């Protein structure tokens, strides 16, 4: 599976960062750190995370 999805394993909250990390070949903790740091900037980062949590399909087993 090469698309964007929320994995069953490696989730911390909703699996969004873990899914993005798998899709782009990065470490999940790197993506989580970038997401956390981006929350210091003005913008709708938290809303985008919630929308991705709702919209991204879960991993099918």
Automatic annotation (TrEMBL):
Domain of life per record: Bacteria
Major localization class: membrane
Keywords for this protein: Cell membrane, Membrane, Transmembrane, Transmembrane helix
TM stretches of this protein: 33-56
Annotated ranges, domain Phage shock protein PspC N-terminal: 3-58
Compartment list: Cell membrane
Membrane topology of this protein: Single-pass membrane protein
Cited PANTHER family: PHAGE SHOCK PROTEIN C
Record protein name field: PspC domain-containing protein
Species: Actinomadura gamaensis
């Amino acid at each position: 599976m090469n698309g964007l999805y929320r994995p069953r394993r490696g989730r911390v909250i909703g699996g969004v960062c873990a899914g993005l990390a798998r899709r782009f070949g990065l470490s999940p903790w790197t993506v989580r750190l970038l997401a956390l740091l981006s929350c210091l900037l003005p913008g709708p980062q938290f809303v985008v995370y919630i929308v991705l949590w709702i919209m991204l399909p879960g991993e099918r087993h």
